[in-house]
Amino acid sequence: MRTLRIILVLSLFCLGVMGAAGPALALDYPNKPITVIGCYPAGGDSDMIARLWAQFAEQKLGQPVLVVNKVGGGGITGTAFAAAAKPDGYTLYLAQAGPVMLTPNVAKTSYSFKSFDYFSRISVGNCALVVKGDAPWNTLTEFLAAAKAAPGKYSFASPGGATWLSFAMRQLIQDAKVDIKQVEFQGISLAIPSILGGHTTFTFAFPQNYVTQAKAGQLKILAIGEKSKEFPEAKSFEEQGFPGSYYGWAGLAVPKGTPEAIQQKLSEVTREITRDPAFIEKALNMGATPSYVDKAAWQPMLEQQNTALQSLLESLHFQKK
Asked: Per CATH, the architecture of 128-240 is what?
């Protein structure tokens, strides 16, 4: 009987220690620099929001937060690196739909959507189809009419074959039934200059990469995800016969298995950051809209979006190679 009582006491003690380990781990975290992996080149929309978050996170976490760009394969290289990192909270990943949802469904990758825990959405972006400022068209409808009249004449500057932006454009081209060439670039920060230089005709971009040039008249918006106060004259995709959610998102994820207590701490810090007036002002100035959603709400949203994307890819006969 005494032996049984000792075993019960030890068991309860061990459970107590295990239960306290998570919060204790969070209290000690972080005690060294944190790295945020970006899978697209420096200067692009995702890189800009990652670096802005890192700047504010350093102040709140008391440790350096470094953004490292691991570029290649339309986002595969950086995403695979982040997925394989030690799940200890010191390697974060700036997640976007293209590399974590689209790519694993159309190409062989060492990771999948389920390789990560998505603990905080940071921002959303109103996507737009843009051309050079002196282009002869003012709407998507006008451009598509010209493209139908001259098959193969115009070109799409793709920010990467496996990116969400590129996939969205392919879908539009398919729906519009036009013949348009596709020119591949390693990121939107390289695709935009090709438009400005007249080497390609158009691209599909997030606000961080078109707002400044559009306001200066260097780029012209032919269609936008939703009506914008900044560009009231720009017609939406839906107004021009192409309904859909032309919004992008950016958020933070960690390799699967990262302690929940650490994820919770990072999520709370992100909530504080996205409500900071200084962060909001800087994010809006770069064309991003701060939009915090915690893991409990965001993870199910992403799972639903991933399932819907898989169905769409199947209907478009996209096969994993």
From this structure: 3-Layer(aba) Sandwich (3.40)
